[in-house]
Write a structure and sequence with these properties.
The chain is of the alpha+beta class. It has one domain: Aminopeptidase, CATH 3.40.630. It has seven helices and eight strands. Strands 1-2-3-4-5-6-8-7 form an eight-stranded mixed sheet, with helices on both faces. Helix 6 links the parallel strand 5 and strand 6. It is globular and about 45 Å long. The structure holds coenzyme A. The site of coenzyme A has 21 residues, from strand 5, helix 6, strand 6 and helix 7.
């Protein structure tokens, strides 16, 4: 399966062989959308938290944007965020903790990848009640050569279509509040910012309702009268 995009870029399913590229892209977009290479002393860890597990745990919704310079972006979805987080807790983080020392709770003493290391030992995997209408979530990062060409818009529409076909009524994404470019991007493609006291501070949540097509889906909601 491939989806031709623009200027030789195309979207395809991510594979096991893409793991190094997923980790590299995650690092190079890991500082609120900008390159985090100069910050992180563990170049793989951000990818092992935010990118690689999607290919392993939800491969049907894990894609890369490939192109003239090689893999230049990724697009991930999790249809059921609560179920995905349970699998992260049971199947992913235990192994990751074995390779990662906990730097302790004192954020003032954290250096390099310590913020990420702390997260590995204390992940927040609860799903706030205010996200109930948006049970799926997504994740997209493109390297600079792939940006500003409409690829983000096309890729998100593709993911939305896959999730809607699976019966999801809506999806959300977490955005770093310092990433104004991404917040404006999501606004331009129809996402609204969610505001609720149960949403963790430190993130902006953007969300969109989907037109569900699968009436047998566990997510399917009866149409409003
Ligand atoms: C954010 C990102 C996914 C957007 O993808 P993109 O391919 O560059 O965006 P597109 O070219 O598809 O733009 C789609 C729309 O968003 C708008 N948009 C994109 N970036 C914007 C910005 N910085 N400010 C205002 N509008 C913006 C475009 O103008 C376009 O609107 P239009 O179609 O009405 O003209 C991509 O730039 C990226 O990966 N950035 C770095 C990593 C990152 O921040 N990821 C998101 C983490 S939550």
């Amino acid at each position: 399966m491939t989806l031709d995009l623009v200027d030789g870029f195309f979207l395809r399913r991510a594979t096991l062989e893409d793991h190094p590229a997923l980790a590299r892209i995650c690092l190079e977009t890991g500082d609120a959308g900008k390159d985090a290479s100069a910050i992180e002393d563990d170049p793989e860890l951000l990818g092992l938290i935010y990118a690689v597990p999607y290919q392993v745990l939800e491969p049907d919704l894990a894609f890369v944007i490939d192109g003239p310079g090689g893999v230049s972006g990724y697009l991930f979805g999790a249809a059921d965020t609560a179920a995905f987080n349970t699998r992260l807790a049971n199947e992913w983080y235990p192994e990751l903790r074995r390779r990662t020392a906990d730097p302790g709770p004192d954020a003032a003493s954290w250096r390099g990848s310590d913020r990420a290391r702390r997260l590995v030992h204390h992940p927040d995997l609860t799903v706030p009640g205010s996200l109930a209408a948006y049970p799926s979530h997504g994740h997209i990062d493109l390297l600079p050569p792939a940006r500003g060409k409409g690829i983000g818009r096309r890729a998100m529409a593709f993911l939305e279509g896959r999730l809607a076909a699976a019966g999801s009524p809506g999806l959300h994404l977490q955005v770093n509040p310092r990433n104004g470019d991404a917040i404006r991007f999501y606004g331009a493609i129809g996402y609204g910012v969610l505001r609720s006291p149960d949403l963790p501070a430190g993130h902006v949540y953007v969300a969109k309702r989907l037109r569900t097509t699968d009436e047998d889906s566990p997510f399917h909601l009866p149409p409003k009268r």
